[in-house]
Design a protein that fits this description.
Blueprint lengths: L12 H17 L12 H8 L3 H13 L3 E4 L3 E4 L5 H8 L5 H22 L2 H20 L2 H18 L3 H9 L1 H12 L12 H8 L3 H10 L8
Antiparallel strand pairs: 1-2
Helix pairs in contact: 1-3, 4-8, 5-7, 5-9, 5-10, 5-11, 6-7, 6-10, 7-9, 10-11
Length: 227
């Protein structure tokens, strides 16, 4: 009998799930799947980790419950944190506190834009161009939900270009609240007067102008009237 044929050589289900969680965490901490990025699909994880679908599903569910991963309907599963601090921030912002969320976004995004102008790489600039183009295409398409995702993706790309891992983790933790504030600002339809041009923000980052980038990032992040 070979070791693989020996039932005693196969870890019990609970242990397999724990081992799979550890493997997923290791890849996240190692940067293979960065904060804000999407992890491989379930079949791909099954093949890569050598475990069954149910084991992968339970491990992903556990990490989602812990606030490390976020499952987005129709889009995939994304890394939103590498530790327990960011989920605490996310839970703090689950209530209807639009003004506070905007203030937190401003604190994050203004500094991120400033750092991005100083640290951006050619790959970052390409990602920003792609995200800006996708945002404008989503606006022209007229679907609020698609525009919200595209707008959030552009802001996330700016934060990524800052190359500050802690900032990226904290920003990812407010992803749900971020989308809610964008959706609230847009309303039920994409009206022309609500469109905000982000091309100047990207241009300031490209030009390596941290002060102008910070100004552009903060210009559209004012608290709602009466807040």
């Amino acid at each position: 009998m070979t070791p693989s044929d020996d039932p005693a050589a196969v870890p019990p289900r609970g242990q397999r799930v724990r081992d799979t969680i550890a493997q997923l965490r290791e890849r996240i901490l190692g940067g293979e799947w960065p904060v804000g990025g999407r992890i491989p699909t379930e079949p791909q994880l099954v093949a890569a980790l050598g475990v069954g679908r149910n084991t992968v599903r339970e491990a992903v569910r556990a990490l989602a419950h812990a606030g490390v991963l976020e499952c987005r309907q129709g889009s995939g599963t994304y890394v939103v944190s590498t530790d327990e601090l960011a989920p605490v921030v996310a839970r703090r912002l689950t209530d209807d506190r639009t003004a506070e969320v905007v203030e937190v976004r401003r604190a994050f995004e203004v500094e991120a834009a400033r750092l991005a102008a100083l640290r951006r790489t050619p790959d970052d600039l390409a990602a920003l161009d792609d995200a800006l183009a996708a945002r404008e295409a989503a606006w022209r398409g007229g679907r609020v939900d698609e525009f919200v995702e595209a707008d959030a993706a552009l802001h996330t790309a700016v934060v990524a270009a800052a190359h500050n891992r802690m900032l990226a983790e904290l920003y990812a933790s407010v992803g749900t609240a971020l989308r809610r504030t964008i959706a609230t600002a847009m309303g039920d339809t994409l009206e022309p007067e609500r469109h905000v041009d982000h091309a100047r923000l990207v241009a300031a980052i490209r030009a390596g102008d941290p002060e102008r980038a910070a100004v552009e990032a903060g210009a559209f992040l004012e608290p709602p009237p009466g807040a």
